[in-house]
Design brief:
Length: 197
């Protein structure tokens, strides 16, 4: 059976390749590194879908709505958006949880921890700002984007007026996250590898 003929097969193949490579390279198993890998890969999934929404889906739905003779955006709203939102909101949770686990595992022995990071204590200022930005973005996903998107794509019943205002709130929250992701990623990479400026 061709593993590339299904999404699950492709995911499993990628993981098998990663494990094989990790075993072939020097160094033993390290849970902290596994958690960091999970953090990065779920973060890529989350922010990748955020960028997809902002630079592809939202402009495409606007164009479909304006194109009076065209097929409209119903297919995207029905088949694409629910799947994208499923991966989007749960990869956001996994990113945040694996980030917090990393803080507790890697920083705690040196006297750091989630509170020290969030209070921007010395040595944790850069990652502290990054963690705050990431947690604000997580809040936006679950409190502003997802409940309003449920009305927009018809998972929850809403009048046309309610849908219109839900669309505005969801779009503004999504754009806010798009903006915040830029400094957030600088802080994520900057804690160990230095800021770019
Ligand atoms: C939601 C809250 C988040 C928390 C609490 C968090 C926490 C952390 C921590 C503690 C580190 C390790 C920093 C170090 O010591 O080098 C880190 C690194 C990193 N994070 Fe996050 N993070 C969050 C969100 C994100 C998101 C959304 C992304 C998106 C891709 C992301 C991507 C990264 C990357 C690429 C690194 C660098 C790993 C490395 O240099 O080895 N993080 N994060």
């Amino acid at each position: 059976m061709n593993p590339l003929s299904s999404v699950n097969g492709a995911i499993v193949t990628g993981i098998v390749l990663m494990v094989a490579l990790a075993l072939a390279l020097p160094g033993g198993f390290d849970f902290g590194n596994l958690d960091r890998w999970l953090h990065i890969i779920s973060g890529v999934m989350w922010i990748g879908l955020l960028y997809y929404f902002n630079v592809v889906q939202i402009p495409a739905l606007a164009a479909a709505g304006a194109d009076k003779g065209g097929p409209g955006g119903t297919g995207i709203a029905k088949y694409v958006a629910p799947r994208a939102l499923l991966w989007f909101r749960w990869s956001a949770v996994i990113t945040a949880v694996s980030g917090i686990i990393f803080i507790e595992m890697a920083y705690r022995p040196a006297g750091g921890g989630l509170m020290q990071v969030l209070m921007l204590r010395e040595g944790y200022t850069i990652i502290g700002i990054g963690a705050w930005l990431g947690l604000i973005m997580l809040f936006n996903v679950w409190v502003l984007i997802w409940p309003n998107q449920k009305k927009v794509i018809g998972i929850v019943q809403a009048t046309d007026a309610q849908k219109a205002s839900a669309r505005v709130v969801a779009t503004m929250a999504s754009r806010t996250n798009f903006v915040l992701s830029v400094p957030m990623l600088m802080c994520m990479g900057g804690q160990s590898h230095g800021l770019p400026f």
